[in-house]
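Supplementary Data S3. Sequence and structure tokens for construct A.
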Amino acid sequence: MTLARTIDAVEASRPSFERLPAENVDAEIDFFLTVVRHRKEVLRPHVVFLDLADGREMRIVARLEQQSGSTRLGTRPLRRLQVTFGGVSGAQTAADYELVVSTLRAALVNDEADVVALSQIEQDTPLYDVARSGAPWWRVDHVPAKSVHWRAELADSLEGFISSRGKKTRANIRRHARQLIRAHGDVLEVREFSEPQQLDELTSELESIAARTYQRGLGVGYTGDESQRALIDLAARRGWLRARVLYIAETPAAFAYGYCYRGTFYSVANSFDPAFASYDVGLYTLMQLVDGLCRERDVRVWDFGTGDAEYKERLGDLRLNEAEVLMFAPSIRAVRHNAARSARVAASSAAKAWVANSELGRRVKRTWREYAQRRARSLAAKR
């Protein structure tokens, strides 16, 4: 076993990434190192290389993060060993996954971290089952944070993609497109961004739209922070970036962007100016991006990313039920954090179910989004 704890050590291991390419863009070496360099909470990389007796290789790509605020153990911030999405490469058998989990738990026993996080793990898979077993009950989370992950198969054309969606979805896409073109067709423009020299213009347009959305008021979505900009720059230089911005009378109205990697398009962010919500400009812009993807014969899958949303359910055709699995260090402080976190996740899950399944809950959600949107506009006006 070899452990790389520094950026230089990970750079020196580049041949391993070439022999065993990461399946997910998050675990690709340059993407991973960009995150390590630019996210303030990251302390260092933690990449494990395992040589198996049968000649195969396995790799675990993770980063050690420091979390402050509510996630503290006494006076010390929580040290979280975060395995990247798709960060386990080369594992094939149950014994392989047992070795992966035992290697990660060793970091807890050796006091290198307080908690190990395996995020976006598909339920009912060997990795999920092994990670949630084989340890004392007080060292495993009892209320995993569950999530939905949607994907879609791309077609040879946009019309082919739309035609394979549900009847209501097909009708809505076409109806809103007609309404938008009828109302603004003479001043409607969609621009493509994919080159490094377009970075400043693209990020400026993304910011001008995101600053007006409810997501900004909640502090999610495109924030324009250092790490997001660095990743867009990397993606442009590597030929991964695919972005579309919709303009109405030369005013940015909606955007969608993501990265193409090994045959899959990974959505990163999409949003729209609420002033044009009645035309569903966000969906129109997404479809313009999909049109380009369908023309790329080597891109066949659209990965919407973790988290549920109405548009993902309408456009996706493969639903994955995933969860975050946490493993805790053998310490009183870590156990205390486990108990407090379990209570928070249970309360959050109950609240989400109430919002989704009751009319009052849905009204509260709408009110909260309206408040967040007003807050975003207020913040934008102060700049």
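Construct B, processed identically:
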Amino acid sequence: MDTPSQHHRRRAVVGAGLAALATAPVSLTAASAASAATTATTAQAAPAAAGTDALRREVERAQADGSFVSLVAHLRDGRHRARARSGVADLVTGEPAPYDGYVRGNSVTKTFVATLVLLLEAEGRLSLGDPVSHWLPGLISGNGYDGDAITLRNLLQNTSGLPNHTQLIDFDQTGEAFRRHRERHYEPVELVAMALAEPPSFPPADPDDPEPDFEYSNTNFVVAGMVVEAVTGRGWRRELHRRIARPLGLRRTYAPADDTALPAPHARTYKRFPENRAEWTDTTMRNMTFYGASAEIITSPGDLDRFTTALFRGELLPPPQLRAMLRSVPLAGEMAQMLPEGRYGLGMVRRTLPCGSHVWTPAGQGAGSQTYLSCTEDGRTAVVVHHTGTGGPEQITRGVTATMRLMDNVLCDAIA
């Protein structure tokens, strides 16, 4: 039987000659290409949501303010659904972005991996209080580290003190680094070793500390993925398929491992690297094992909506595990600057909307795309946003601001 990545690989065969083409600069601006194919419509075969007009306006506004190549948004309020899009899927052809195409989930992967760990706890196969050393003896040791002191909760809540390996080497921040690493395979133990070469950021948090030290670290979830394999005897990618994607019918959600392709239909991803901020580089094809269980999955806006609906309506986790997932701590560092009132549960952020309601927001960004979703705790109202086209720090900041405003406005309109 095919693994999920094998199945999708056959659907997206890419010749070796296209690999070089995929990283060539594209000498078009996002604005000029987007003007040729900008469209926003409501979903068909579904009742019109109360926020349909607001969604259309907000998508067009965010597209312009964020200088994105493409933007797609899905809004759900109970049984009512709407979707809108703006920009282009391909800067060369100018075709519009697909409404529900394949996208890189980036750090939304963390929410899926946290759910896998909690599913195993619900089966009595592990506990959040287990030390990492119980499942991965000897992995975390030396240089001030103690695998006996770091628990699975520390990993999933980013309170372990493990540094972020993706901040320690340039994997995709420059065009040269992107081209050097884009096809390379990384083993999880390599990624952990990168982090352990640095001293701990802080001691692991006590489970009863209401304001523990916090540092967002992809390494935590790489280790969590290794724990899933140690417990089940199968890799986290297969467990994702067996325990979440297949039962929920998420036909476009899988972990690609070394498959660099993004299946059709999709919007191509683009990034302006610092060597030349005037040109877009096509970053669609890439090996995501450098991120692994922290940010590897491929999914779709529709699948993400289905996943969060099931999660918050209790279709995936029993009540004790869902409560554990939503038990949160204050953010710190750059995340706290962006979301001063934000809190981190297990694999996702809790934040407050301008209208006073609270939502949970799994989100992630990669070289060329960003994926966001926000859902009310009862699972009734949610918005999913995916956009392509990322540039330098200033453009990324504007993009995050534009996207958060889009989500906040349409959610508040829907909830009111």
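The chain has one domain: 4-10+26-415. Residues 120 and 310 are 17 Å apart (CA to CA).
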